[in-house]
Specification:
77 residues; rod-shaped
């Protein structure tokens, strides 16, 4: 009996090593997925800011009530 258990010991050690490596691979994959998702989110925020920037623009001169009359639009004389 003892002789038949000896070949199993290295197999068990190999199995433990494979399981440990599988966990590391899984963790790396999860980290990579999280990194890719973060990049997609960042790109979406950039596009959103760019769309808001082009949508707004500076206000027209006639729309700014804070300007004094001398700096407002020129009236015809």
């Amino acid at each position: 009996m003892v002789g038949s258990l000896a070949p199993r010991v290295p197999l068990i050690k190999r199995m433990c090593y494979v399981v440990a490596m599988g966990n590391q691979t899984y963790m790396k994959r999860q980290k990579e997925i999280a990194r890719q998702q973060k990049q997609r989110d960042k790109f979406a925020r950039r596009l959103q800011r760019k769309a808001e920037k082009t949508k707004g623009g500076p206000p027209l001169e006639t729309e700014n009530p804070n300007l004094p009359n001398s700096l407002g639009p020129q009236s015809e004389k």
